Amino acid sequence: MAEGNWFRRGVREIGRWGAVSAALALAPAGTALAQDDRMTPIAIPAQPDAITLDTGPLPGAKANESWHSQYGSRFARNVTVATLTPFLPDPAKATGAAVVVAPGGGFRTLSMENEGWDVARALAARGVAAFVLKYRLNQTPADMAGFEKSMREMFSGTAARPPRPDPDAAMAALAPQIADSRAAFALIRRRASEWRIDPDRVGMVGFSAGAMLTMATALAGQDAKPAFIGNVYGPIASIKVPADAPPLFVALAADDPFFASSGFGLIESWKAAQRPVEFHLYEQGGHGFGMYPKETTSTGWFDAFANWLTMHGYMKRAS
């Protein structure tokens, strides 16, 4: 696969450290929210607009989908069937552009609210159709106590790190998520007329693990081919960039504990390939800031992303 070393390194980091943005263990500092950091089980919320994708159930899954709340936000885990939820703009404001939104969570959970629905609503308010991808996840303990224990072990400073997975095996393990992403693009383009979308103006933005999935979707050389991509606090190590790589938007906090210390190879690679790239490095924000209100300039990432889309013509109606 064209992702090469960048994707391998990203997979290793996600694999070694577990549910990065799902636990948000490092993200809430400085938020304007005063919510409890405990994980509280909740009922699966009604999702009447969610469309089941045709990728089928996760092979070998034994635990059923469950949800919990933390920091005033909702998270899904043990997702075994992928869905896509449309957030369509007012027809009077619709630009014809669309974005697949991929929440993060270390491929173990999904930050459905902070990195999914809230992002999609903000895009729809700007006239861009947004589709939240609830992709299939690696299984975790079914009970909350078991899940919390596994999280504590992963983030413990004294616990031994899990062995590094074989890179090729790790990439193969993401095949379900990549299949879900491809299915999302196929569905959107198939129903583009119904949703008033230009099939050639469909991009993707992802967060942490979702950013990895976004990059894999764009660079795997398969049929999804996003028109543009956004990498929000995902890995930014160097990569071989194809000649037709889409415009890339990157946002990262300088104090991100996972991906801020490996240099800016991804940006340099895009520049070397003479492909459009925009990079925002925020002084503070940690990991997993998403749409949380915080007293840091990282909260400006969404406006920056919207302005970038405007510069590329995606906020204007197609002629």
From TrEMBL:
The keyword Signal applies. Keywords: Hydrolase, Signal. It comes from the Bacteria. The keyword rRNA-binding does not apply. Residues 165-291 form the Dienelactone hydrolase domain. Residues 1-34 form the signal peptide. This is Alpha/beta hydrolase. The lineage of its organism: Bacteria, Pseudomonadati, Pseudomonadota, Alphaproteobacteria, Sphingomonadales.
